[in-house]
């Protein structure tokens, strides 16, 4: 893609919703109504045509993009993200994120700061020593520019924010700046009571300044990662477009890439790292889709009957290495040690159970005749299903 896929939302014609929005089988359920309010599905649909990526929070237009935080603060945000969000939805591969996103901006990671693993050390050895000197990192350059401009004009934090917004970031840092800022936005939303009410919105605004770089990349999986992270943020914070629309974009990318099916011959087409990356992104999308559709009473995006993709590997990210041979399948490997992805695999199975519950209890689906009750049917289905088998 050479332009933001979310631009299509801006250009599309959306009719105003004047009546009660469709809530499917959950019509009248108060929780679904709360969710609909949170994602701004009512009259704010009109706003999508003018400002498809701006928050619906009152006064959001007056919020400036966040100033790039110090390295220690950035590491704390990333620690929170990997512990609280990536453990449930492992969108990002930890070592790959540190190498290609964190290091260009901040330099090497402080290994004293753990990232969702007490049993396996962060494995940066496979990437070799960091070739980037501290002077070449964007944060070092950013500090130098800010110091010079502040010395020239003086001022308080508001002046610093204004000066920061005027700094032109070199193009090679646009992609890392998007991913860092959206991760900061998600992390600050996890413990929102600890931070200023607007800080998540500020980080999101900072991320969206560079969102086009993720859609102009030659790596389609990176485009999907960007949309999935925006979806995660949209669940945690009311925003426009709502999570339903962002998730729809992710579903279309997923189908275009064929992530829902391992397929005949695909096992030899990709290396081991890419195979696992495709699987983890698909199942993150699956989990989000089932979660939102269950809450809102909407039809699911991809039916289970069309899914043949296996679950991603339970191995810690330190053991999943870029450039590994094609004949290895990480989903067949086991380390015997606990991994943060054990949590995500449990969530994937829970979403499958949720779908069965919704189909039979709320959509009047038929219980297979060979089962005496719903519990027996769901348990047998999950146990015997080849979908996502590891």
From TrEMBL:
Keyword Protease among UniProt keywords: no
Record-linked InterPro entries: XnlR_reg_dom, Yeast_MetPath_Reg
Chief location bin: nucleus
GO CC field: nucleus
Any one Gene Ontology molecular-function term assigned to this protein's record: sequence-specific DNA binding
Entry annotated with the keyword Lyase: no
GO process annotations (BP): DNA-templated transcription; positive regulation of transcription by RNA polymerase II
Domain Xylanolytic transcriptional activator regulatory per the UniProt entry, residue ranges: 243-318
Lineage top rank: taxon: Eukaryota
Protein keywords: DNA-binding, Metal-binding, Nucleus, Transcription, Transcription regulation, Zinc
Localisation: Nucleus
Name of the featured protein: CIC11C00000003617
The species this protein was found in: Sungouiella intermedia
């Amino acid at each position: 893609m050479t332009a933001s896929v979310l631009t299509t939302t801006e250009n599309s014609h959306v009719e105003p919703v004047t009546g009660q929005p469709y809530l499917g089988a959950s019509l009248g359920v108060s929780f679904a109504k709360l969710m609909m309010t949170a994602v701004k599905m009512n009259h704010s649909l009109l706003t999508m045509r003018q400002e498809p990526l701006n928050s619906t929070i009152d006064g959001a237009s007056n919020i400036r993009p966040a100033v790039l935080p110090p390295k220690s603060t950035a590491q704390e945000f990333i620690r929170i993200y990997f512990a609280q969000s990536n453990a449930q939805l492992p969108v990002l591969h930890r070592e790959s994120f540190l190498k290609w996103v964190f290091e260009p901006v901040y330099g090497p990671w402080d290994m004293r700061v753990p990232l969702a693993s007490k049993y396996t050390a962060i494995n940066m050895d496979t990437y070799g020593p960091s070739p980037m000197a501290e002077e070449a990192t964007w944060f070092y350059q950013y500090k130098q520019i800010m110091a010079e401009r502040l010395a020239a004009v003086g001022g308080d934090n508001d002046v610093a924010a204004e000066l920061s917004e005027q700094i032109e970031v070199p193009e090679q840092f646009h992609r890392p700046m998007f991913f860092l800022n959206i991760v900061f936005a998600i992390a600050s939303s996890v413990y929102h009571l600890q931070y200023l009410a607007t800080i998540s919105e500020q980080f999101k605004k900072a991320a969206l300044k560079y969102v086009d770089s993720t859609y102009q990349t030659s790596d389609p999986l990176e485009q999907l990662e960007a949309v999935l992270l925006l979806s995660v943020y949209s669940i945690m914070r009311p925003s426009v477009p709502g999570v339903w629309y962002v998730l729809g974009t992710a579903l279309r990318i997923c189908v275009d890439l064929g992530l829902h099916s391992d397929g005949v011959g695909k096992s030899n087409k990709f290396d081991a790292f890419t195979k696992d990356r495709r699987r983890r992104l698909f199942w993150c999308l699956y989990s989000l889709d089932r979660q939102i559709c269950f809450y809102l009473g909407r039809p699911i995006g991809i039916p289970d009957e069309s899914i043949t993709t296996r679950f991603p590997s339970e191995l810690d990210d330190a053991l999943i290495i870029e450039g590994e041979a094609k004949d290895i399948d990480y989903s067949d490997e086991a380390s015997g040690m606990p991994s943060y992805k054990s949590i995500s695999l449990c969530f994937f199975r829970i979403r499958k159970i949720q779908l069965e519950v919704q189909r039979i209890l709320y959509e009047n689906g038929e219980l297979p005749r060979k089962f005496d009750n719903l519990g027996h049917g769901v348990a047998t289905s999950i146990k015997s299903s080849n979908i996502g088998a590891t």
